[in-house]
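My convention is simple: the sequence line spells out the residues, with the fold written below as integer tokens. I include a record here:
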Amino acid sequence: MPKADKVLVIGLDSTPHGLIFDEMTDRLPNFRRLMDAGRYGKLNSTIPAITIPAWSVMLTSKNPGRLGFYGFRNRKGYSYDEMWIANNNAVKEPRVWDVLGAAGKRSIAIGVPQTYPPKPLNGELVASFLTPDTTCEYTYPKELSAEIKDVVGGYMLDADDFRTEDKQRLLDDIRAMTEKRFKLVRHMMTTRPWDFFMFVEMGPDRIQHGFWKYHDPQHRLYRPGNPFENAIRDYYVALDREIGTVLDLLDERTAVLVVSDHGAQRMDGSICINDFLIQKNWLTLREPPPKVTRLKNLSVDWPKTKAWGWGGYVSRVFLNVKGREAQGAVEPSEYERTRDELIALFKSIPDDKGRPLRTQCFKPNEIYSLEHIEQAPDLIVYFDDLYWRATEDVGHDSIWSFETEIGPDDAMHAQHGMHILAWPGAKRGRNDKANLIDGAPTILDLLGVPVPKDMEGRSLAQ
């Protein structure tokens, strides 16, 4: 028997649990309303804790090793410089709306990452921020785009150029994007039949990357009394009001899951991973760069190079293995010893003041099953529990940097996001043991649809 007639998932990209459950609870009556009606708490994300693969892990209940992608960009085979972007075509496993469609249930999905280019489903779909722009075919069915224009005017897939110093423009864009998204959500909820409805709002992620230094007294660039000190808090108050307008459209037989794909926290700095590897003689260039330069634009002496890294909120590190890479330098028999030696090196890196960092290094083959081994990095590195990011550019004055190659950025991802699950007859109280991979089984269980045996998560509605 189904536990609910319908399921609504409100996806809030990058929303931190502490902000919702501790710092701002008294100012968020609609979050509180859901918390009081069900279970809530921290939500363990994927490794790596980034938008892609996180949302697809949630919706397929398959780990990144089975999905075959580990971020927006992914290495092509064992190439040194070729890569591909993980869009909708990369998702080969059925997502929850595919399973529901086979059971005769209708779904609506709006703004869910990795849904461009759109594919058919039993329902309607509006693609996510990875869509180039709204002149592309970004809806299913394609005729839906004309209706969206009538409803909201110029639909905003994302807040463009959110890594900018024009903070007021960015703030205005984020607010406008969120208002348009919720306006569309209300329209679609009330004009279509649906059993499952999911939308993802990117506003939390964008405002945190743009404004965390103004918000967090622990951020190294925080200045008390700055003009944007309350920008993040005020945004969440407005977001709570928008959520309230959606909740008011539901009946008592609708289950609601509010979920973030990962959390957020301050950024303390960047570790220049390839500069470090050069210092330690793991990476060799044929000539040093005259200025800070992308590694892909430099001449690497591959036969003398044992490892190199990609940058981002997490670092993906690749070994140069004989017989695997074209100009390998690491003997296959030395692979594990070499990986362990590299882990010890990364964990030895202190911060710029000489204080130890709590760095974690993950071997993909040990944390999830690998069905696409050629896509996996050899190591996934979290510098200081994700308070420090990694920069892959080469030519810095030191291994510590306080700039990023992508523009102004104040926040890092955090391993734990948040969730609230309210359903008819729900158990109530705190639950900090939930995992993002539990999303699809939970949705299916609530709607009384059998959970496929190859899904890895478990229903949180038990």
